[in-house]
Amino acid sequence: MSSYAEALQDFYSGEVLGEAVYSALSGSARNDDERLKWGTLLQLETETKAWLRAPMVAHGVSIEEQPADRGKGIALAEQVKPLSWSEQMQGLHHAIATEFVPRYQSHADAAKARGRADEEAVCLYMVEHEKSQVEFARRELAGAGMDQSLEPLVRFLRYPIKR
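The chain above was modelled as a monomer; its predicted structure follows.
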């Protein structure tokens, strides 16, 4: 069972990694639609990373970004860049659905087992944050229009990117 501090650090590391991935992919987008989609994913990671800082500081967790997290994200983006859009979306869907959602859910389950509703709420928010990216990828793979694809992400944004 992980501690809440460990969960917060895991969430933050994931946002730093995601931010690096989406930033690099935004820079290599093949058209304006891809640039907007990667940019929206980047905005989601950036806003969530900033949101996490308050509970982290309140629980004595460092908000220093680890260069290794960013480096891992950049390396991952380099592997993904040459793939087709469909392959990129399949990879995004698979990675988040099979790695991040279950791991973050385990943090929520641990918080619930500790009887900490406040901690569980933060953890569950992070689960939903990850699921929004899975849903975005699912909609993209199904051929949904731009607004429909982005809707699960935009729900989480305070500052959505507009064309």
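Residues 85-113 form the longest helix (29 residues).
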